[in-house]
Amino acid sequence: MPNLVAHVVFYSWPLVVYLLFQRLPMVSAIAWSTIIGFLFLPAVLQLDLPAIPSISKYELTSISVAFMCWLKVRTDAHANRWKTPATEANGAAPARKSRARLLGGGLLIAIIATPILTVMTNGDPLFYGPTMLPALRAYDLFSILGSIIFMILPFWVGRKYLNTTDSHVLIMQIFCLALMGYSLLALWEVRMSPQLNRMVYGFTASSFLQHIRAGGFRPMVFMNHGLSLGILLAMCVLSAAALWRHARQTGANAAPWLFCTGWLLFTLVMAKSVGALLISLALLPVILFMNVRSQLLVGAVLAGIVILYPMLRGAGYIPTEEIHAAAVDYSAERAQSLKFRLDHEDDLLEKANERPIFGWGTWGRNRVFDPYTGEDLSVTDGSWIIFIGMYGWVGYIAVFGTLTVATFLFALKRRRIEISFATAGLVIVLVANLVDLIPNSSLRPVTWLIAGSLMGRFIAAREGQGQQVAVASETPVETPPPPKPKVRKPRSADGFSGPSPLGDLQPAATVETNGLKVRRRR
């Protein structure tokens, strides 16, 4: 049961976000608010209000940040309402709308529209022995739409306000600095066991037995599970490596980021999250040794595997038996856990294929129940199976398409857009999180914020928008000198217009002295 400290921290967080936006620039305030809220707010505390979805620390952070962005922009616009817009002052034409903007907007509309169709196609109750799952009603639509809008708010914030290389660098810097401090708490729990949630907030977010690993402990600090902390550490390892490459590219001091990479990798090893460690070890050489274009290609290939994974899994192209055999060689306990997940995914995928287009909706209708006892037999771990079961293939493609579209676009246009190592590294960081969505449910506001910032960067590069802000903070651009006016050379007395034999003397001027007109050279 959450104690008083948990309630005070949770309900005072919007005030903290307000103070951060008052004291810091907008980009820094967005990054710090999102990451600190993700790391430190109590995981199980929720605000339950009628007709709207439950608000956990993820929704609270997303709503607070989005509202402060809107308020700050509105305040600045009100203060500058009498100023002439820059486009009118310099006579520049408005930027054209790119197809990438239309594609991103279409995917967001699909995310919001899919629940409406899901509710319309699930008007029947489900009976499993004594268990009855209610039909979806119009009342449920408000709650579902609310949860969807809260989920994609960070994407909108990232696309609109974090669309420059400097903002990408700042996101990763704040990410790494926050996790450097967080790593000390994680290492304490490696030694002392996961106790900080209970000591500070008065509850345990998940089963203690799940965090006993290899004769020690897997930390979770203030997260809901140690697996969430593991993938977060993996993303920070890749971010620090990307900052090292970017610093070497720009001539800045790269040594601190190399140390940060090593320290966070050491913490990840001690955290005993095998999946996150494998992801970081597989992608770390990509950031350290490949050029920008190669990084974008690797990111696109992995993003394609993620978005096609359900189809490949259903068609039998994923070698689950070979993967399980490899896990047995590593650890019988880990192999048993993997087999448990794979079996449940097969059952859930079979249930999802009964309503493949718009899914089963909420109230647990996507889960598998015993037809006689009504017992819930399913365990939903991966985000992909959750979205397919709840919103069908349409909802799955809309959500994962929004998360991966910028990665595909960067890879397709890699020869036409100048991309820094920071942006390419952020693509790999996002892909690492997407790969972890296959076995785990680690879709968080940080994921959406990164995906939105990458989409905004691509749109800005294609449309030429935000270049005054982006260029001023990335690479100074020399303003070309104004063209010299064409001066018609005077003809000489003999009718020729060649150079004057008198050199650089200016044309004569006529002045009047004592009534006499005298021609005088200037």
Tell me what you see in this structure.
The protein has 522 residues and is mainly alpha-helical. 62% of the residues lie in helices and 4% in strands. The protein contains 19 helices and six strands. It has a two-stranded antiparallel ribbon with strand order 1-2. A two-stranded antiparallel ribbon has the order 3-4. It has a two-stranded antiparallel sheet with strand order 5-6. A hairpin with a 2-residue loop joins strand 1 (126-128) and strand 2. The protein is globular, with a radius of gyration of 30 Å. The termini are far apart. Mean pLDDT is 83; it is low at 84-94, 465-479 and 489-522.
Count of alpha/pi helices: 19
Helix fraction by DSSP (H/I, runs of at least 4): 55-70%
Distance between the terminal alpha carbons, to the nearest Å? 93 Å
Average the pLDDT over all residues and give the rounded result. 83
| Tally of strands | 6
Content of β-strand: under 5%
What is the subunit organization of this protein?
A: single chain
Brief overview, please?
The chain has 522 residues and is mostly helical. The protein is 62% helix and 4% strand. The chain has helices spanning 4-11, 13-23, 26-40, 57-79, 86-89, 99-120, 138-161, 165-192, 196-201, 226-250, 255-271, 274-289, 292-314, 320-330, 332-352, 383-412, 421-436, 445-463, 467-473; strands at residues 126-128, 131-133, 212-213, 216-217, 508-513, 516-521.
